[in-house]
Design brief:
Elements: E1 2-13, H1 15-20, H2 25-31, E2 44-49, E3 57-61, H3 69-77, E4 79-88, E5 103-105, E6 108-116, H4 119-128, H5 132-135, H6 143-153, H7 160-177, E7 184-191, E8 196-202, E9 211-213, H8 216-222, H9 227-232, E10 237-240, E11 251-253, E12 258-263, E13 266-271
Antiparallel strand pairs: 1-4, 1-10, 2-3, 2-4, 5-6, 6-7, 7-8, 8-12, 9-10, 9-11, 12-13
Helix pairs in contact: 6-7
Length: 277
């Protein structure tokens, strides 16, 4: 399907996790171990914040991530305290820049791995539910971007987790009316620069893979000579579709039907329960 990662912590070079790690996101674009597809070469995207209240920067391309020389230069140059990166494996929609993640609206970014089952059959009904004031911001044709603007419609900017629950519930209710089962499979990332909100959920309770880093303070005690761990700081936090390094005790799987909210050193885990309209 797709692979993505998100980071918050001390400002670090994007190259550190995109290229230097043993099973980096670039490696996953060619050799995914846990994804629905081994190769994720239908474009990629980066989004990052230099300061929490700024509009995020973004770079997207239809090139395979492993074959874009500009990506390597950019990743080496940019240092950021919060960023997301995504490599795409297309499903229903074409390979074009506007279909590459992350999607952006004002301060918010959104990335997704998974799918809405039979999205073309429900597309018109789902798009008509998007707030008319936001509808013209749609640029592409993916189910992922539709999910983002549905979440915005349901209050992502005000209360992110309930908005995502309403988005998922609306999709499932729409699918039920069309006789589509299961409806939804997703791991999603959303951020406004001050927080990361992530969800692992699927209608059949068999979601795409998602892992989070364990305590970096604990990891510094276990691996005091590892410069990668020292650089990120004790409050750093990573979310990854697949572990990027093989350090024991470095990763834990995000449980099914779980939402995570990360605000600096504060990390909250919640049950994720879709709310039907």
């Amino acid at each position: 399907m797709c692979r993505w990662l998100a980071y918050t912590g001390n400002p670090i070079s994007l190259e550190t996790v995109l290229f230097r790690a043993r099973h980096s996101l670039i490696d996953q674009s060619l050799h995914s171990k846990l994804g629905a597809t081994t190769t994720n070469g239908d474009g990629f995207g980066l989004g990052w914040y230099q300061h929490p209240h700024d509009i995020p920067y973004r770079y997207r391309s239809v090139h395979p991530a492993w074959n874009d020389r500009n990506l390597r230069e950019l990743a080496r140059a940019v240092h950021a305290p919060l960023f997301v990166a995504h490599v795409r494996a297309a499903t229903h929609t074409p390979v074009q820049e506007t279909n590459c993640h992350p999607f952006r609206h004002r301060r918010w970014m959104f990335a997704h791995n998974g799918l809405i089952q039979s999205f073309p059959l429900m597309r018109r009904e789902l798009l008509l539910a998007i707030d008319p004031g936001r509808f013209n911001a749609l640029e592409g044709s993916t189910d992922s971007e539709a999910m983002f603007y549905l979440a915005m419609t349901f209050g992502l900017e005000v209360d992110p987790v309930p908005a995502l629950e309403r988005m998922a519930g609306f999709i499932e209710a729409t699918a039920q009316r069309h006789g589509i089962e299961p409806a939804l499979n997703m791991t999603v990332f959303a951020s406004d620069g001050e927080q990361i909100v992530a969800v692992r959920y699927s209608s059949e309770h068999n979601s795409r893979s998602l892992f989070h880093s364990t305590s970096f303070k604990h990891l510094r005690e276990l691996y005091p000579d590892d410069p990668r761990i020292a650089a990120v700081g004790e409050d750093a936090y990573l979310l990854v579709s697949e572990p990027i390094v093989d350090l024991p005790e470095a990763w834990a799987e995000v449980p099914e039907s779980t939402a995570i909210v990360v605000r600096g050193p504060q990390i909250e885990y919640r049950d994720f329960k879709p709310v039907a309209p």
